[in-house]
Specification:
With 191 residues, the chain is an all-alpha fold. Helices cover 78% and strands 0% of the residues. It is built from 8 helices and no strands. The chain has helices at 3-14, 30-39, 41-57, 61-81, 89-105, 112-133, 138-162, 166-190. The chain is globular, with a radius of gyration of 16 Å. The two termini are 30 Å apart.
Length: 191
């Protein structure tokens, strides 16, 4: 399998410390929050995979999972903005990348609401990270990262829809494997 060495190389670059979350309170502007989900490998991969997984499952998951992600992410943001401190947010985000990669790689079929529960748990931690980073100007910050998240969810949904054919589905499954490896590398850097 030639894909494994490629995945390891790409994952190691994506999981480098340069993609870690910025210093607490360093963000706060619309621009910073709009860029963050695209510049952090953890958010980029996980959010895109939520969209991809929802499209692969199909049916009501196509709407429920992305909407659940958005709502729970905003809940995590509000919790962090209100002062809720949690010491394992980065580890939970890395685990979400591993789990979502596995969902796509192994094409896990699950009830829509069970998937929504998992997605909401992951999203809460992603939102908490955003809330911890926001220093001021909370409304522009929320608008920025919500806009970026919607864009990533739509990109993932388009990939999942594109990957419904047998040959293309193999590429999506390989992407899921790569994502899971990236998540493991991210998790290794959290400890």
């Amino acid at each position: 399998m030639r894909i494994v060495p490629f995945c390891v190389a790409v994952s190691s670059v994506l999981a480098s410390p340069a993609f870690a979350h910025p210093v607490l309170g360093a963000g706060g502007s619309f621009d910073a929050s709009l860029v963050h989900p695209f510049s952090g490998a953890d958010h980029l991969i996980a959010i895109t995979l939520v969209g991809t997984g929802s499209a692969l499952i199909g049916g009501s998951a196509r709407a429920v999972w992305p909407l659940t992600f958005l709502i729970a992410m905003l809940g995590g943001f509000l919790a962090a903005s209100a002062g809720l401190q949690m010491g394992f947010v980065e580890a939970a985000i890395s685990l979400s990348v591993v789990a979502l990669g596995a969902f796509v790689a192994f094409e896990f079929r699950m009830p829509v609401m069970l998937g929504a529960a998992a997605v909401s748990l992951f999203a809460f931690f992603h939102g908490h990270a955003h809330g911890t980073e926001a220093a001021s100007m909370l409304v522009p910050y929320v608008i920025g990262f919500t806009t970026a998240t919607v864009a990533l969810l739509l990109i993932g949904m388009a990939a999942g829809h594109w990957g419904r054919g047998a040959a293309r589905r193999g590429l999506l499954r390989a992407a899921g494997v790569c994502a899971g490896l990236a998540g493991l590398l991210l998790l290794g850097g959290v400890a």
